[in-house]
Amino acid sequence: MKVPRGRPIRPTSERVREAWMNVLAPELEGATVLDLFAGTGALGLEALSRGARHATLVERGGRILRCLRDNVTALEAQEMVTIVAADVFAYLDGLAPGAFDIALADPPYGQGLAERLLKAYRRSRFAGILSVEHGLDDAPGAPAGAVERRYGDTVVTFITAGDLEEE
């Protein structure tokens, strides 16, 4: 997987990505996946390798976007991937409830973006499952039914649309 030089990028570690996909494994076969803050595309591309039908990768940045396109091309996944060059929250504003089966998000830490994603999910429920990676001190304030998995200082929170109905 190609990663741009000189940019402060924090790709999901292989260990966390593997564990994350193992949790989602029963839901991935034939799923439509949304990868928010896609970066290199590692999460969405991993979901495809595990049976997802299609991945939409949303990334805003210029150099990282070129890297993302190169990674999709290198894996010959162009027919199963849609790359959206946009701000994540602007993109989410246009989504209908249930637009995707699974949403994966690895936003930059320490900027309140995990919490902001959960607020957007509460408004639209754009996927059946939202899973967000965040730091220990950057928890999104998930509902009671959410599941959190901790990997060192990294946490992945899994929230279903049904969890929100119970609030």
Overall description:
The protein is of the alpha/beta class. The chain has a single domain (14-21, 29-137), classed as Rossmann fold (3-Layer(aba) Sandwich). Helices cover 35% and strands 26% of the residues. It has helices at 14-28, 42-49, 62-74, 88-93, 113-124, 161-165, and strands at 32-36, 54-59, 81-85, 100-105, 127-135, 147-151, 154-160. Strand 2 (54-59), helix 3 (62-74) and strand 3 (81-85) form a beta-alpha-beta unit. It is globular.
Topology record:
Elements: H1 14-28, E1 32-36, H2 42-49, E2 54-59, H3 62-74, E3 81-85, H4 88-93, E4 100-105, H5 113-124, E5 127-135, E6 147-151, E7 154-160, H6 161-165
Parallel strand pairs: 1-2, 1-4, 2-3, 4-5
Antiparallel strand pairs: 5-7, 6-7
Mean pLDDT: 90
Q: How does CATH name the architecture? A: 3-Layer(aba) Sandwich
| Structure summary, number of beta strands | 7
CATH topology descriptor: Rossmann fold
The helix content is 25-40%
Q: How do the helices and strands follow one another from N- to C-terminus?
A: HEHEHEHEHEEEH
Task: Compute the number of helices.
Answer: 6
Sequence of strands across the biggest β-sheet: 3-2-1-4-5-7-6
Number of domains: 1
Helix and strand composition category: alpha/beta
CATH level-4 homologous superfamily = Vaccinia Virus protein VP39
pLDDT under 50 segments (min length 5)? none
Shape: globular
CATH class: Alpha Beta
Cα distance spanning the termini: 39 Å
Beta-strand percentage range: 25-35%
Largest sheet entry: 7 strands, mixed
